């Protein structure tokens, strides 16, 4: 309703406009509601959902440095020097993934038990994850960024999906350009399983074999 003539809105619409910006009012007089709505627009009061989304995005990028300070790391889109040499990636164990799925993604026990049926795992199995690159952030955290082809619209532009972890492979958060964009969308889940496969390959078969495995995809960075 910002920039729209508030005179043309009904009392109910004006109240809804205010309510979604955290202003609950028992006022019914239209004139007063219009004044409030205009004031809300003037001070650029955003709908709470939008605010929560932004603060969630910021929380996902907040890490603790080794000396205990909280630092907000840059958004993945403001980083340009990505590295496609994934050999230094820490080994992502299945345990790391399960801890993340339980604590951050809030998966139920039943969902965990049948993780192989989950959409995220299926996307990984069907090789939707590609173009994996990494970026070390400080001494103990790193970003992983990749593309993930949408499940049903495979001809459409892939999503950009990211994971934030520390150098012991504790998964901190993730994000995605899909509409869900939270730490638990199926694309984030697919990336985690793909990272497990690749880093496990390095551990069990050695760097050379992992590189060959890596190169066996169509693009460098396929895992
Ligand atoms: Zn996603």
From TrEMBL:
Q: Which residues form the SWIM-type domain?
A: 159-196
| Keyword annotations | Metal-binding, Zinc, Zinc-finger
A GO molecular-function descriptor: zinc ion binding
Q: Which InterPro entries match?
A: Znf_SWIM
Q: What is this protein called?
A: SWIM-type domain-containing protein
Source species, please?
Answer: Mytilus coruscus (Sea mussel)
Q: What does the record give as the organism's lineage? A: Eukaryota, Metazoa, Spiralia, Lophotrochozoa, Mollusca
